[in-house]
């Protein structure tokens, strides 16, 4: 390869990659715009240009671009994914979907920050730059096609998150939370990087699509598939999964989550709980698919590899069951609403992991339809989770602005003083429990159905399934306790009351999210399900 | 209005629409909201009467079926329909809701929220009885939990929080068991040209072995039946799943107690008749003896427990446990010997008796709770030992109350009689000993009800607190009580009014299930070996 062919190759690669990468580039440009606006002092108080305005414009443009790209995929139907930047990133329906998903979630977050006033205008650029930077990392997570990119994307997401958790500078708890998050995060990243290096060394490549082929070669050769190789392989995969498990706050890598959520403002906690989780799930699915290889090659897959993938599925399933149970039980004793929601986040990561576990079991046995349904369930759940969890965190932030407290006990009789917030919380929490007619129920149904189906292949998964559905009952009590305080427990005379009417800017935010939770569980089930189905079809085609 | 989908949807969603409109009312306009909510329940009742009007008594099949795709990818449909088993319960629901709404004038706290939740509850109840898609059924089943939790939790008595969460946890647990059965059926029904389905009618056919190529094997039916039975038995409730009921009934406000006893308990019985038995006949057959035993034990246990109570409302609550035992007894008397159903006429009689018992108990228990509520509103206590002499102070009320309590007792000529008589008679064919035990329940029932009447209404004078508050019942209370008493008498002297509606459907159900018995018996034999 001489210089000219290389140059031509890069040129053609760039000309296809850059348009596909335009939403990310728009986000980068928005970050620069925010920096320059502050540099030239045009976004200060009294000026027409506000940091939030710049941010929203930027996200809006990126959103339109990514919706157009998602539309291209869903319209053409059979469009294959294509590599970007010499195959470091993969651009397919999955990427396009997660971009839209992440952008919607930060639009909602920015909307919320405008209602709740954290950050104020002075700190606005700092906060939004961190937010956008972190989102950029998540978008890369969803499109990573190379283990190096996988690691970079995780770090790019994590570092701004550390800072955002400690963004309330004066507060001790915030600094403590940020420090804990950094230390845990650093440790997990190190473990993961070590795992990546082991795996790359073993397989001779870090390019995800090639990994499965290399793995199959090793598995086919009895001489290579010996003790040391197996040990290395297992350790490497486990280490990488540990890194992802940290981002997903899975048991036993969840310790940072309650502390970080309690210390961070509710807006940041909501962002971490929704967007960060979605990015990490996208990454996990990508990694798992890479371990399995292309669907079409499944019949040629060596038995040892099938067995290995099945084991990954079973292990993920048990981790999921333990995580859900642990999260739900630990939430019982919480008195702080954000901490409670942190444990709830852990539990929900457990539910969603069940979908990935079911997917791995289906794939290891070559049932691609079952696997599609599992991913579909995951995507549906994520979409509903976005609205219901952001709704809950948003209401926590709005209540905090009124009564200056996030203690559950201080929510007494909120239903009287501010019925709109109480009803919104009711809808979001019932959806988190998974009671119809909310979207949370349909999401749970789809994931549990996939798990139940997978258990027919691997009967031990019935245990995971039963633990999963019983967790619905376990979780009821603590969610209902919040509602009990809001609606039933009498308030102190001296307690502050929150008064947020429905016809206000905050009211609109809560109403939009609550209605979204309801319609995704009733009349819009089919459309939302179709989106999930189409994206899934694109992934697996 | 004759298009079934419009009529059936209107019946289900009229209360929900009413609740939506109520939410924009001014909080202060309490009287207006009450009247509006009452109109909503009246409209719903009239709609169900229209349904009754176009219902064909002679047709045993599901009538007025509608099916609109809801979630195509999962083959979930918005599928509704009505037959002789569901129609009486639909009518009962709308009637009891209407009467409970009239009784709701006594609620003065947070009226708006109360009325909205009340109407949402009615939508859930009607949806359960009309849904023919298992997924839809499940959705409506769970939808009721939310309003019920708050109706007990906010407007209830002193231990309302405990009672409300207990009710919620029990029912949700039952719901989870049902959910597992739902998935078992869905994935088990794959095959054939339709593929996996939630269609209850198709699932029934598959369960009865009528569709070649697809079947639920004996083990599946066995497991699914018990999952479903426990889920429904919690709602009925039978022993040993009944402990939520005394708490919930006692703490709930009067109108909600009426709905709980009058309608919600019937959902359990309906679920067993509509889903557990027809979809899992083999499982049901294998479990029949245990079910009859549970039924008989509930009758006796409930009656003894009722006798031991000193709280008037708790007594009525335990009487519900006892009375619903007859329902289980009547449904389960499926006698099989030598590979065929013996005396399917008796079983049919038991089924009819069970259905009649559900309707009769719906009327009489709602009436009993209402009567307790009327006196509680005046004297603010329910201690049976501190009543007495009410007959002299409130003659009209006492007369009506005694009538309704006699209906609950099962006096011939009143609505409680036919259900008890038919179920116990049919039980004789199944097992004379169990029939004798169940019949003993009739005596015990007479014992505690007569004793209650004696302690509350008879006697020389009222000895309890607040004697000054005892005033004659007002027109509103009188109309509710009178309506219930009229129905109790009408069903008692002309039982055909109810039997005629359901006979064809229950006969069809019994015939279908009897035909499945051979394979079921083989399976039961295998299990024993």
Architecture overview:
The complex is a heterodimer of chains A (about 550) and B (about 525). Chain A has a two-stranded antiparallel ribbon. Chain A contains 20 helices and two strands. Chain A has helices at about 5-20, 20-40, 50-75, 95-115, 125-145, 145-165, 170-205, 210-220, 225-250, 255-265, 265-290, 305-330, 335-365, 370-405, 415, 420-435, 440-455, 460-485, 505-520, 525-540, and strands at about 80-85, 90. By secondary structure, chain A is mostly helical. In chain A, helix 14 (about 370-405) packs antiparallel against helix 16 (about 420-435) and helix 16 packs antiparallel against helix 18 (about 460-485). The mean pLDDT of chain A is about 85. Chain A has a domain at about 300-540. With about 525 residues, chain B is mainly alpha-helical. Chain B has one domain. In chain B, the strands form two sheets. In chain B, strands 1-2 form a two-stranded antiparallel sheet. Chain B has a two-stranded antiparallel ribbon with strand order 3-4. In chain B, helix 12 packs antiparallel against helix 13 and helix 12 packs parallel to helix 18 (about 430-455). The mean pLDDT of chain B is about 90. The interface of A and B includes residues 470 and 529 of A.
